[in-house]
Write a structure and sequence with these properties.
190 residues, alpha/beta, Rossmann fold, 7-stranded mixed sheet, 7 strands, globular, binds S-adenosylmethionine
Length: 190
């Protein structure tokens, strides 16, 4: 298990929101059934150590535009070393619309999020969701994960309500128990 995320979590728990990288099982679940294979423009939020990035690279079309947005400087540096061919914006995902324009695109087909939504306050959840709705094309997919215990938190419940209110279709995957802690995936269609 990578200790990188644990080290960054101890320094900045609110922004990292996890003590370990997501498992392979969760990474496979997050990229399945969201149309990555046919997407032209894909954005990843909060790649951390790149566990979702590896899965995206396995299934995306070679010609697809794919970029990641990571706010943590240490994780961004490590990501650039490991994935030199994936453009990495060291920025907040709140700025996703400008980043997509910088990539020469108008909208994204898929947004894959590794962000710890339940650790965010109401205002930050709203700003990040607003940016995501702005950046996704109609019919595009936003996918993110949540820890099971996060559903007991007010911020986790609030986030689920916001997804219901803002997307035309919302589904939840089965629970991935082989993850620390167990988690599930929200798939949302704009
Ligand atoms: C829970 S970790 C997930 C890392 C990885 N995707 C995984 O599943 O193992 C959350 C990641 O989101 C990043 N992050 C937090 N807030 C962010 C923001 N506003 N914009 C971009 N990245 C952010 C953190 O630095 C961290 O890398």
């Amino acid at each position: 298990m990578s200790l990188t995320i644990l080290g960054q979590f101890l320094k900045n728990p609110k922004h990292i929101g996890a003590i370990a990288s997501s498992s392979k099982g969760l990474s496979r679940t997050i990229v399945s059934d969201i149309g990555i294979e046919s997407a032209s423009v894909i954005l990843e939020y909060g790649p951390g150590t790149g566990v979702f990035t590896r899965q995206i690279l396995k299934v995306k079309r070679p010609e697809a535009v794919f970029a990641a947005i990571e706010q943590n400087p240490m994780l961004a540096t490590q990501f650039r070393l490991e994935f030199p061919d994936v453009p990495l914006y060291e920025d907040s995902a709140e700025n996703a619309p400008g980043i997509v324009r910088h990539l020469g695109a108008d909208k994204a087909d898929c947004v894959v999020s590794g962000l710890p939504w339940a650790a965010f306050d109401d205002g930050l959840q709203d700003r990040l969701l607003q940016a995501t709705l702005e950046v996704l094309r109609e019919g595009g997919t936003f996918v993110t994960f949540a820890y099971l215990q996060g559903l007991l938190l007010r911020s986790g419940k609030r986030f689920q309500q916001k997804l219901k209110a803002n997307f035309s279709r919302l589904t939840r995957s089965r629970v991935v128990w082989w993850n620390l802690p167990p988690a599930f995936v929200y798939r949302c269609e704009r």
